Amino acid sequence: MTKTTFKDKKVIVTGHTGFKGSWLSLWLLKLGAKVVGVSDVIPTNPSNFEVLDIGKDITDIRLDIRDADALKRVILKEKPDFLFHLAAQPLVRLSYSDPLLTYTSNVIGTANVLEALREYDKPCSVVMITSDKAYDNVEWVWGYRENDVLGGSDPYSASKGAAELVIKSYIKSFFKGKDSNIKIGVARAGNVIGGGDWALDRIVPDAVTAWSRGEIVQLRNPNATRPWQHVLEPLGGYLNLAMALVSDERVQGEAFNFGPPAENNHSVIELVKEMSLYWDKVKYEDISKSYVGPHEAGLLKLNCDKALVYLHWKAVMGFKETVQFTAEWYRNYYENGNSRDFTLKQIETYIEAASRKAVTWN
Hints:
The protein has 362 residues and is an alpha/beta fold. It has helices spanning 19-30, 48-51, 68-78, 92-97, 99-118, 155-174, 203-212, 232-247, 268-275, 305-311, 319-335, 339-356; strands at 10-14, 34-39, 59-62, 82-85, 124-129, 182-188, 192-193, 217-219, 225-227, 229-230, 255-257, 265-267, 284-286. The protein is 41% helix and 14% strand.
């Protein structure tokens, strides 16, 4: 790839006001892209999208991806060179209280994006972001590979598995073959942490919000183990996949895992203790014995060999670096503000670290 892969290219990002979408939008702006964001609302308060002041630099469009006609009009009007589909109902616990919202957003919304692309006549590389929760998780100790069984016992996980079936059917029915102008890849990642996440019922936002107020964070499942990764890791994978779709016929219609190395698998309590190295007066409480709530998986790991072989992508940061990047972002936000400059510096630091490991985004 040349150094102008994204420069001056029109890039649609659905879900651009969310945690991952706002980081991706800022990174694309840094790469010189013309970003068009499509989201229905700003999902949290505070909001990373607002904190980073992204709206002034992009075309900011508000619509619900469940509105098929409105979404189609935007895609056909904006004529993107790339499209990253992140818009979703992203929370496992919310899926229990509002399963219909979860299914319609994550399954029908995905179908609406693909349906709009059926009428699009320009070349476009499309990255459909689902989740590692799309796998039928039986909590075995080895990592899931892309050809393992999809499923999900909770509404969120099931919606992501169902979205994958929708994507696969559209690729095979309408976008198969090297002559298709629409090139589609699927990205699976999860357990992402990083600055600017204020979603409900997620351990890092729960912790930093409590600590910024001098309060105690309650740990529902302190021994649950997750493959923690910084938000920049999978976003780098998405960018690499988008670039590969332009020139490598092998990746058309393929799914890829983007996850951290095995040594990044740590428990919630280990994560909180590591974060406490960067915060004063950290307080936490184990409420697992008294907590009654929906099921939360205890273990989930990904095998990312396919991304390494096909995309030359691999994780850059270890567990300690991941936590340090995250904790320092929040500490800067609560103490100093100026989060956009700090975020851009973290992106640059990450790119430099990745280049030393032969991972680049040009």
